[in-house]
Amino acid sequence: MTRTVLVTGFEPFGGDATNSSWEVAREVARTWEGPGVLVPERLPVTFAGAPLALREAITRVRPAVVLCLGLAAGTDRVRLERVAINLADARIPDNDGAQPVDEPVDPAGPAARFTTLPVKATLARAAERGLPLTSSLSAGSYVCNAVMYHALGLLPGAPVGFAHVPELRAEEDVADFAACVREALATALELGTADSRLIGGAIA
């Protein structure tokens, strides 16, 4: 049975003409050679619309693995996020003009949800290939965090996660960042939710 992978990116926001997360998602789809079938999906940058679009895509695609992408300006490495928190605290309005402050993403949900991707195994493999990939303990409190939180709630038990990608500044960036995403997807398809118990984390 052919397995399907869902990769999402976001539409532009904050006055930008493009969004690196969608450009990387499209590059991953363009260069994907399997295993399985990869479906890219663009989400709105809205607290209300993004979870609905994600739910619709998951229902339609029935993916074995989900990796959502978002933009993190000011970084130089793709960041696999390890945790999403039940907090919406928007520094700027979303594309609908909504700006929740200190509100729950889901009033009925848990305080946090942890990625089910094999993050440490992915990082080890990426390091062997010299890929610009790292992990992060904060997905923020904007729409990216909300999407990760909802994604993990929609597919319990499956490999699901979120990655922040840097801004695309050079022509080769999109290929490098797409390679990081492909590594994460290939590892998840191989290992499922089983991760390596490697030393990692952060002191502060």
TrEMBL record:
Question: What's a Gene Ontology MF term here?
Answer: pyroglutamyl-peptidase activity
Entry annotated with the keyword RNA-binding: no
Please give the GO cellular component terms listed in this UniProt entry.
cytosol
Output one GO BP term.
Answer: proteolysis
Pfam family membership, one: Peptidase_C15
UniProt keyword annotation of Cell membrane present = no
Provide the alphabetized UniProt keywords: Cytoplasm, Hydrolase, Protease, Thiol protease
Q: Which InterPro entries match?
A: Peptidase_C15, Peptidase_C15-like, Peptidase_C15-like_sf
Q: Which family does it belong to?
A: Belongs to the peptidase C15 family.
Q: What's this protein's name?
A: Pyrrolidone-carboxylate peptidase
Q: What is the protein's species of origin?
A: Serinibacter salmoneus
